[in-house]
Amino acid sequence: MGPKKKGKKEEPEAKKKEEESEQEKSDTAEVALREVVRTEQLAKMKYESLQKCVTQLSSTRALYVKHYVLVQQKIDQAREELLWSEYIKCDGMPDPACVKQMNTYLSLWEESKYDLMEDVIAKTQEVLPLMNTLESILEYPEEWEVPLKPEEMTRSHKAKLVERQKIFSTMKKLQMSKLNRATYNILLDVSPIVDTENNVLQHYLASDLVQLGLWGNVVEKNMRVKGTEFDGLGFSFELPRSLMGIRGAVRVMRVEYDHYSKQCPSYSKPGIHPEDQEELLDRIKKKVGMFEEKARREEEERKKEKARIEAELKAAREAEQERLRLLALEKKGKGKKGAPAPPAKEKTPRDGGGSARRASMKSNRSDNPEIPTEAQAGSEIDQEEEKDPATKAKEKLQQRIDMYKIKIDKHELNLRRNRIMAGVIVFDMLYIPPQPKKVANWVICELEHPQELKYRPWTADYKPPAPPDENSNVKKTPEEIEREIKAQEAELQKLLQVHLKLPSTALWFEPPSIVRWDEEKNYWTTEGFYGISFNEGKQTLSFKTMHFGIFGLSAFRFSNLPFQSWELRPEGDNKAVIALSAAAVQAEFAIEAGLVTLIKFSSGNKPPVKGIIHVPMRLKDLIKEMRQQGVDIFPDVDSHCYIEGLPLKDIPTERHLYYCMALTANSLGFYWSRWNLLSGYEKLIMQYREKIVGEAEQPQKILLITPELTSVLECNESSQTFSDKPEAGLPEYADLYNLVQGYCSAKVQKQMSLATPIFVNSVYEFLLNTLVLSYA
Question: Residue 377 burial (CB < 10 Å; 0-12/13-18/19+)?
Fold first, then answer.
């Protein structure tokens, strides 16, 4: 009797648990079904948003294509005018684009017998502009000839390109050869430049492009002097004891040009990586395609899932109805013995309740109602969006560094990071050729063959100190330390001591480093220099070296990047001014149709740049000139590899934004925002305001630009915290151009229509060459 009573007491409790289990399964299935429906709705909304984005970006692209055609027509016209101006010149100089004329000029120059230094310097002033033009043809051939695709190039055209490069290389070698020959002619008879009291020759000659200093002993074992200083060159040296008293001449020649760096492997700007060539519209179209493919793939899965869940719900309802029916029968039986008990619910066939478990897992993964988990599954794009913005920005930066960073040798100077400034210095020791002797009324000369400079080879027998052994625990005594110091000082006395004042033809924002041209390896090397020090007050670099050779001063290119702030403001229908503020430089540029003018420049207590302020120039010419003077505020595609603290941005988004800014540059002002630095890789933030010339200025607002959306935000520059919440009621816009069309005033849109394609392209090119959102 005991077991029966116990079973009767447990029946209500078992029934209660069974009812709760059935209800839980029913609720879970309903939640899963609602989640599937919600996912379908969100996926549809996302797809419609992307389609709208494609439509708006396509309208901007169509405008770009229209402008591009007009700009190309203007370029073709400028090319014809340039060729005509060269054709009608009557200055006796060859056409640099004509290979035949250049070869004739080169041959005549090579056969020329005017080898006096004054004549060679005068010829240098004639030749260098010609070489610069030829170099421009090699770098920008589309300015001189109609560009051809690789498959359109004939054999003769390819041969012409090779011949131009050969001519340019020959001209560089011939230029140095002529200077060497002129130096040799001076040394053929040193009597006019020798101090008879100490038997030392000294000579100095200066021009705008070449400065020459000669010094040396004309007799053996003259130990009274060991060096000199050329004030005009800002160069002094002291010979080591091993070179004192040797008959010979030391030449110090500075030329205000650099024909060596272009030969270096690290000189050329790398091509744009394929990942950076993608246009924003193409990326969004690709994303739409991936979305459609994923939607098609998941549609069947959702249908199956929905069918399984509906089957479960139906089975649960039927089971509940059956249970209630049996329970009613049991009550009608009034407790009769033998009444059948309600059977336990059978598991759903086929999956044994697996659908409910899967629905429960999906429900648990969908804690955030803003993120459609189903839409994210299996998509690489959505996985990227799930990452923390700071992590994603760091990963993207490292990825882009890996894309562009180059490998160099241990002592090789990286010319992607550094630049040779203020020309080069030829510092060598020469044999003095046999001197003429006067016998009675005769002058007897011993002729050498060949009649050319002969260099005295010399390398210091110097042993640098061994690096300290970090694993050694042995402490040296004071006597041992003192002996080592004296031995090191004795070794340093074997080196050539040089003091070099920084030339005033360039701006120096950081102490430069000294490098030497390695003829065998064809690059600048930092090897062989010791005891380097820099005197900030005197602007003098001192060092000891093991070698003579061709020296250069290397400066870090990006001392003024990243920018501290920037602004772009309209100044007329087809004129805008962009102001850039860097670490040590503040510059303002006026941008007009096809031309850029540097209108303001300051660099603290340093002198301004020379010869380019208030001079309208083509952008590429202005960039080249400013870089030559030491002001490089124009990053290249790989500059991020060498600058720290950058808010690097998504390239296709940034490039598209700059075109939109150019379209609106005559009616909107754009300004740097402090929120941009830490906003992440795909969020570009700046301030803007409507600015019609002659109208009252409007307050500045914050713009947020992402690959798929451009918004005006509620927060502003002085807000305590950043919020990406857009203004209330603001529709979705794919880019800045479409936002301006639908959001800004009619006056702004009217003013925009007055901008010419050439002006728009000029602003666009300037922004592409400064990348203010990635470098500020």
Answer: middle
